[in-house]
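Supplementary Methods, section 5.1.

A reviewer requested that the exact input to the structure prediction be made available. We therefore reproduce it here, unchanged from the version used in the analyses.
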Amino acid sequence: MSYRVDHVNWQVNADEIRLIREKVFVCEYRLPQDSEFDNIDRNCEHVLIRDNENTAIATGRICANGKISRIAVLMKHRKHDVSSQVISKLLAIAKNKGLKKVYIDSELDDVEKYRKYGFNAISNVFMDAGIAKQALACPLDKFKSHNTILH
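The structure derived from this sequence is encoded token-by-token as follows.
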């Protein structure tokens, strides 16, 4: 299966982004819908990944301050590590915007994955909506690219 990674606009692609995040965060994770969608979305840069049928299957965002969040991949596509393509595209956007550092609040199970990109812990473990997380940061000059090709 092939995928396409696009840098998209919230105002144009909000319906597709919302659908993915509702399926992942609201239905699977059982997070309240009002906590999933905030007023920050319209001011962030967003990424959408589409499959070979042009269906949106993954998304993520980066805020102006460099915080990466809301990475969501539909369940049937997780085995292909689509999230790494979301991260890579968000980091490329950050570099193009001239950001020096990016941040992410990682679920504990994913901390090692982000370390491979050059992220390091900047906080103790904390709880967010019942999920154990840790804040990580990565100076963009230390970012380790994983040019994964999805197929």
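The beta strands are 3-8, 45-51, 56-62, 67-73, 101-107, 120-128, 131-139. These observations are discussed further in the main text.
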